[in-house]
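TL;DR need C-alpha coordinates for one chain.
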Amino acid sequence: MSETLHFRPSPTRRGFSLIELMIAVAVMAVIVAIAVPTYQGTVRKSRRAEATASLTAIMQAQERWRSNNPAYCTELTAAPTDDPAGLGQSDSTSGGYYTLALSNVGANGYTVTATATAGKSQAEDGDCATLRIRMNAGNINYGSASGWDDAASRKCWAR
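>> reply
TL;DR here they are.
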Protein backbone atom coordinates (compact mmCIF):
# COMPACT_ATOMS: atom_id res chain seq x y z
CA MET A 1 0.00 0.00 0.00
CA SER A 2 1.24 3.30 -0.86
CA GLU A 3 0.78 6.30 1.19
CA THR A 4 -0.24 9.47 -0.54
CA LEU A 5 0.66 12.71 0.93
CA HIS A 6 -1.98 15.34 0.79
CA PHE A 7 -0.80 18.88 0.81
CA ARG A 8 -3.18 21.42 1.94
CA PRO A 9 -2.84 24.71 0.24
CA SER A 10 -1.94 27.49 2.60
CA PRO A 11 -4.94 29.53 3.64
CA THR A 12 -5.67 32.46 1.34
CA ARG A 13 -4.65 35.72 2.88
CA ARG A 14 -7.26 38.41 2.76
CA GLY A 15 -6.82 42.15 3.18
CA PHE A 16 -3.90 44.45 2.74
CA SER A 17 -0.51 44.53 4.33
CA LEU A 18 0.53 47.60 6.24
CA ILE A 19 2.95 48.61 3.45
CA GLU A 20 0.20 48.41 0.81
CA LEU A 21 -2.08 50.52 2.98
CA MET A 22 0.64 53.14 3.57
CA ILE A 23 1.32 53.39 -0.18
CA ALA A 24 -2.38 53.89 -0.90
CA VAL A 25 -2.60 56.63 1.74
CA ALA A 26 0.51 58.36 0.33
CA VAL A 27 -0.93 58.32 -3.20
CA MET A 28 -4.21 59.80 -1.95
CA ALA A 29 -2.32 62.53 -0.05
CA VAL A 30 -0.49 63.55 -3.24
CA ILE A 31 -3.73 63.63 -5.23
CA VAL A 32 -5.46 65.76 -2.58
CA ALA A 33 -2.47 68.11 -2.35
CA ILE A 34 -2.78 68.77 -6.07
CA ALA A 35 -6.58 68.79 -6.35
CA VAL A 36 -7.54 71.11 -3.49
CA PRO A 37 -5.60 74.22 -4.64
CA THR A 38 -6.80 73.67 -8.21
CA TYR A 39 -10.38 73.43 -7.00
CA GLN A 40 -10.03 76.58 -4.88
CA GLY A 41 -8.59 78.47 -7.85
CA THR A 42 -11.50 77.40 -10.01
CA VAL A 43 -14.00 78.53 -7.37
CA ARG A 44 -12.28 81.93 -7.09
CA LYS A 45 -12.33 82.33 -10.86
CA SER A 46 -16.05 81.55 -10.94
CA ARG A 47 -16.70 84.13 -8.22
CA ARG A 48 -15.06 86.79 -10.38
CA ALA A 49 -18.16 86.52 -12.56
CA GLU A 50 -20.10 88.01 -9.64
CA ALA A 51 -17.80 91.04 -9.66
CA THR A 52 -17.88 91.45 -13.44
CA ALA A 53 -21.68 91.28 -13.46
CA SER A 54 -21.89 94.00 -10.79
CA LEU A 55 -19.33 96.19 -12.56
CA THR A 56 -21.24 95.83 -15.81
CA ALA A 57 -24.52 96.74 -14.09
CA ILE A 58 -22.89 99.90 -12.72
CA MET A 59 -21.53 100.77 -16.17
CA GLN A 60 -25.00 100.44 -17.66
CA ALA A 61 -26.51 102.56 -14.88
CA GLN A 62 -23.84 105.22 -15.46
CA GLU A 63 -24.59 105.32 -19.18
CA ARG A 64 -28.32 105.69 -18.48
CA TRP A 65 -27.48 108.50 -16.04
CA ARG A 66 -25.13 110.22 -18.50
CA SER A 67 -27.74 110.18 -21.26
CA ASN A 68 -29.84 112.60 -19.14
CA ASN A 69 -27.13 114.58 -17.30
CA PRO A 70 -24.00 116.57 -18.21
CA ALA A 71 -21.68 114.34 -16.16
CA TYR A 72 -21.55 110.83 -14.74
CA CYS A 73 -23.08 110.14 -11.34
CA THR A 74 -20.88 110.33 -8.23
CA GLU A 75 -23.29 108.52 -5.90
CA LEU A 76 -23.35 104.74 -6.17
CA THR A 77 -25.88 103.72 -3.53
CA ALA A 78 -28.21 106.73 -3.32
CA ALA A 79 -31.55 106.24 -5.03
CA PRO A 80 -32.30 108.30 -8.16
CA THR A 81 -34.96 110.18 -6.15
CA ASP A 82 -32.60 111.08 -3.27
CA ASP A 83 -30.85 114.42 -2.90
CA PRO A 84 -28.17 114.15 -4.18
CA ALA A 85 -29.47 111.59 -6.62
CA GLY A 86 -27.56 108.40 -7.28
CA LEU A 87 -27.49 105.21 -9.30
CA GLY A 88 -29.36 103.15 -6.71
CA GLN A 89 -26.80 100.34 -6.89
CA SER A 90 -25.47 98.22 -4.03
CA ASP A 91 -21.99 98.82 -2.66
CA SER A 92 -21.29 95.08 -2.57
CA THR A 93 -21.86 92.15 -4.87
CA SER A 94 -24.79 89.79 -4.38
CA GLY A 95 -22.67 87.11 -2.68
CA GLY A 96 -20.76 89.64 -0.60
CA TYR A 97 -17.36 88.62 -1.99
CA TYR A 98 -16.58 92.11 -3.35
CA THR A 99 -17.19 95.71 -2.31
CA LEU A 100 -17.90 98.23 -5.07
CA ALA A 101 -16.82 101.85 -5.35
CA LEU A 102 -16.85 104.74 -7.83
CA SER A 103 -13.89 107.10 -8.25
CA ASN A 104 -12.50 109.71 -10.66
CA VAL A 105 -16.03 110.64 -11.72
CA GLY A 106 -16.36 113.52 -14.15
CA ALA A 107 -18.06 114.63 -17.35
CA ASN A 108 -15.95 112.34 -19.54
CA GLY A 109 -15.48 109.25 -17.41
CA TYR A 110 -15.23 107.36 -14.17
CA THR A 111 -13.60 104.33 -12.59
CA VAL A 112 -15.58 101.59 -10.89
CA THR A 113 -13.71 99.13 -8.66
CA ALA A 114 -14.62 95.76 -7.16
CA THR A 115 -12.34 94.87 -4.25
CA ALA A 116 -12.45 91.44 -2.62
CA THR A 117 -13.89 91.55 0.88
CA ALA A 118 -11.26 90.97 3.57
CA GLY A 119 -11.65 87.72 5.47
CA LYS A 120 -13.25 85.87 2.57
CA SER A 121 -11.46 83.40 0.32
CA GLN A 122 -11.72 85.75 -2.65
CA ALA A 123 -9.21 88.08 -0.93
CA GLU A 124 -6.54 85.48 -1.72
CA ASP A 125 -7.09 85.80 -5.48
CA GLY A 126 -3.79 87.59 -6.10
CA ASP A 127 -3.92 90.43 -8.63
CA CYS A 128 -7.54 89.51 -9.35
CA ALA A 129 -8.66 90.45 -5.83
CA THR A 130 -9.26 93.91 -7.31
CA LEU A 131 -11.09 94.32 -10.62
CA ARG A 132 -11.56 97.74 -12.21
CA ILE A 133 -13.25 99.29 -15.21
CA ARG A 134 -12.30 102.76 -16.39
CA MET A 135 -14.44 104.77 -18.78
CA ASN A 136 -12.50 107.63 -20.27
CA ALA A 137 -13.90 109.70 -23.13
CA GLY A 138 -15.84 106.73 -24.51
CA ASN A 139 -12.96 104.24 -24.15
CA ILE A 140 -13.27 101.33 -21.76
CA ASN A 141 -10.21 99.88 -20.02
CA TYR A 142 -10.24 96.73 -17.91
CA GLY A 143 -7.82 96.45 -15.03
CA SER A 144 -6.82 94.58 -11.93
CA ALA A 145 -4.57 95.29 -8.95
CA SER A 146 -1.57 95.01 -11.29
CA GLY A 147 -2.62 97.75 -13.70
CA TRP A 148 -4.64 98.42 -16.83
CA ASP A 149 -4.88 96.16 -19.87
CA ASP A 150 -1.72 94.21 -18.99
CA ALA A 151 -1.24 90.43 -19.08
CA ALA A 152 -2.26 89.99 -15.42
CA SER A 153 -5.46 92.00 -15.80
CA ARG A 154 -6.36 90.15 -19.01
CA LYS A 155 -6.03 86.89 -17.06
CA CYS A 156 -8.44 88.26 -14.46
CA TRP A 157 -11.00 89.24 -17.06
CA ALA A 158 -10.72 86.02 -19.12
CA ARG A 159 -13.83 83.89 -19.24
